[in-house]
Input
Amino acid sequence: MKTQLHYQRYGTGPRAILAFHGYGQGEGHWRNLIAALDPGVTVYAFDLFYHGRSRLARPDAPLTKKRLGEVMDDFLREQQLTRYGLLAFSMGAKFALTLLENHPEQVEKIWLIAPDGLQRQFWYKLATSPAVMRGMLGRAVLRPQRLLGLLDTLAQRRLVNTGLVRFAQWQLDSREKRLRVYRSWTGFRNLTFDLTHLRRLLNQHQIPITFFLGQHDRVIPYAGLQPFISGLQHAHTVVLNAGHAGLLHDVTSWLRRHPQEAGW
Output
C-alpha cells in the first residue's frame, strides 16, 4: 500500500491555508469554519493518517517527523506553495507544528485551536510510552472492559477529571473507535517538540499566532499552555466558554460575531 495524504481544496483565493483536523474527525469538519473565513483564501483541508481517506504505507510503524515532512514537502511541491497559513485543531497541531519546524520562513500565520503537542500530558505519556500500557491499550481494542474499569477507578479516586473520563469513554465505545485510538496514539507518539526551539522559531520569524482555547477544556487545559504562550512575542489568545469536543463550533460562531478577525 502506498502512502496517501488525502486533502480537499476549498475556495480559490490567493492566500493558502493548510488545515489539520482533530482526533476522530475528517477534513469535512472544517467546512463551517471555512465558510466564516475571509473569501480571499484557499484552504487545503487534510485527513490525518488513520482518519478518512489518508493511508500510510506502513500503518503499524510510528510516524516520524522526518517521514511526515517528506510527505508534506511532496504536497507543497505539487501545489507550488511557498507561503501559507496553518490552521489546526487538537491532535492536528502536531502536523502543523512539524511544518513550522521544517519551513518557518514559509509560514505566514498560525491559528491553533486547543492544540496538542505543546504541553506535557502525563496520562498520554503513560498510555503510549511504556510497553505494558501500549499492550493494555492494544488489548482493549478487542476487550475494553479492563481499560474502562481502570478509567472508572481513576475517576472515583479523583485522579482524573470526570469530564475527561467521560470523553475517553465516548472515544472507546466501539471497536472502530478503539482501533483508531490505538493507532493514533501509538502512531503519532514520535511527533514531539522542543518547546524552547518552537518559541525561538516563532519569535525569530515574527509569525503571528492565535490560540483558541476552551475555558472548560479538560483535554487540552488552558492553564497548561500558558507557560508556552507567555514567551511568544506575537501571540493572541481567545478563550471561549466551551469544552473540547464542541470547540470548532464555538470558534466558528466567534468568527461570525467578529468578522474583522476572519482575515488572513
In short: Residues 122-187 form one domain. The CA atoms of residues 137 and 182 lie 6 Å apart.
